[in-house]
Design brief:
Layout (H helix, E strand, L loop, with lengths): L4 H11 L3 E5 L3 H13 L4 E6 H7 L1 H14 L4 E8 L2 H10 L3 E4 L6 H17 L3 E6 L3 E4 L2 E3 L7 H11 L3 E4 L4 E2 L12 H10 L4 E3 L7 H9 L12 H9 L2 E6 L1 H17 L6 H23 L7
Parallel strand pairs: 1-2, 1-11, 2-3, 3-4, 4-5, 5-8, 6-9, 8-10, 10-11
Antiparallel strand pairs: 6-7
Helix pairs in contact: 2-4, 2-12, 3-4, 6-7, 7-8, 9-11, 11-12
The structure holds zinc ion (ZN).
Zinc ion (ZN) binds next to loops.
Length: 305
Amino acid sequence: MFTATTKILGKAQRGHYAVAHFNINNLEMVQAIVNAAMKLKSPVILATSEGAIQYAGMDYLYALAKTASEQANIPIALHLDHGRDITIIQKAINIGYSSIMIDASPEDFENNIALTKKIVQLAHRKGISVEAELGTIGGAEDEVSSRKIRYTDPLQAQEFVERTGCDFLAVAIGTSHGAYKFQGEAQLQLDRLREIRKKVRIPLVLHGASGVPEKMVQEAQHYGADLTGVEGIPEAQVKAAIKEGITKVNTDTDLRLAFDAAVRKAIMTKPKDFDPRHILAPAREAMQKVAEQRIWVCGSVGKAR
Ligand SMILES: [Zn+2]
């Protein structure tokens, strides 16, 4: 069955590497991610957003992840990403997710604490760990969108973790959700991260850190996509953030871009072939390559045992 997220991240924190979290929406994504992790003997976290649950249903996604974890010989956790709906959070706790995120980051400090604390109590009763968010990570992804980044304050982070009892903390240090992140170069505030790291002992989580690789964007555009203005976080900056204490790195956008480019190519280059398997298999392969690259960036290759 699933491995506890606390176990995967605790080991990573002690070993000074990070573990990749990938968002899943369908069968091909689960297979791509798990094949990548198995090939590289890495632990991995599969995550469902509320948007993914609206699309595919929690039971279907849970069953896909469960099948993968039963067949794979690597630690796999199932995580609820950006939980905001109490009904969905409660169901994830009951059904047996490894961990859930309560995202009360749009609330003010005290309300964020109160809401997070309530969810921590619910989840811990069932032995499930909780990720919370302090500050606001910018950008748009699924149901989560915010125009402005509110950076995480290190002192507030310390107080927040102490008062809520959360297990992992998502921090806002200059990353942004989605493919349209910034105008110009990304600049992560590593000094801020270092200060937070000094004040907070639990694993820290980096959201909105997709690379948006140029080659993939060009491929998608070549086959008809319009991705003007997309921008990612350079891998060197993600690695620097891991060095300063990030233990979980979330990836969604890069998988979507890989999927998009491959599907467009399959349809455009083989206009007579309408077999869904011939359209989706190349997408699965392309997503596996992305997942492998992200696992390398995290430094978790060979850490499955
Ligand atoms: Zn996120």
